[in-house]
Design goal:
globular, 173 residues, alpha+beta, Protein Transport Mog1p, Chain A
């Protein structure tokens, strides 16, 4: 009888664990744009004004932390859409510089699972191991009309499981 109780307790524990994944994926609209993103957790919003392509742009960032990584999608609407390519390059470079001096293992190839997005730029970089905490960033930057976007995952030792669903979940409606 006692063995049966232990089996029932273990079964109940296993069932509860299966129902509480560390990544709880959900579709999230990005501001008042055509972009939908798939996040593994409920994102919070922050915003600030930054210079992009010689324009003051209000950048809104939706981000959350799950499974040891930060998932984020940022958006800005440019007053002059002709500056989108410059804005994307500046945003990507500023993000790279945020990893500290001399990031290692830098690649400009988009993640395998990134969808075909307009004006796509990409970055995969790992912070210099002498810097702490050691982190890897995978990101994409893209634009549609006056809207410029950045989507990235930042964490220690990112795995394909941490990034594939996120990048494949970026959809322009």
């Amino acid at each position: 009888m006692r063995a049966l109780s232990i089996v029932h307790a273990l079964s109940a524990c296993a069932a509860l664990c299966a129902c509480a994944p560390s990544l709880n994926w959900r579709d999230v609209p990005i501001a008042d744009t055509a972009l939908m993103a798939l996040f593994p957790c409920k994102p919070d919003d922050t915003e600030r004004t930054v210079p992009l392509a010689e324009q003051a742009a209000l950048v809104t960032m939706r981000s959350c932390e799950a499974g040891g990584a930060t998932y984020a999608v940022g958006h800005a609407r440019l007053s002059d859409p002709s500056g989108a390519a410059r804005a994307l390059a500046q945003w990507r470079d500023a993000t790279r510089n945020g990893l500290g001096p001399q990031p290692v293992a830098v690649s400009l190839q988009p993640p395998q699972d990134a969808p075909a997005l307009p004006q796509l730029l990409a970055l995969q970089a790992t912070r210099d191991p002498s810097q702490t905490p050691a982190q890897t960033l995978q990101g994409v930057w893209f634009a549609r009309g006056p809207d410029v976007f950045a989507a990235f995952v930042l964490g220690d030792g990112l795995t394909p499981a941490a990034t594939e669903l996120f990048f494949s979940g970026l959809r322009l409606r």
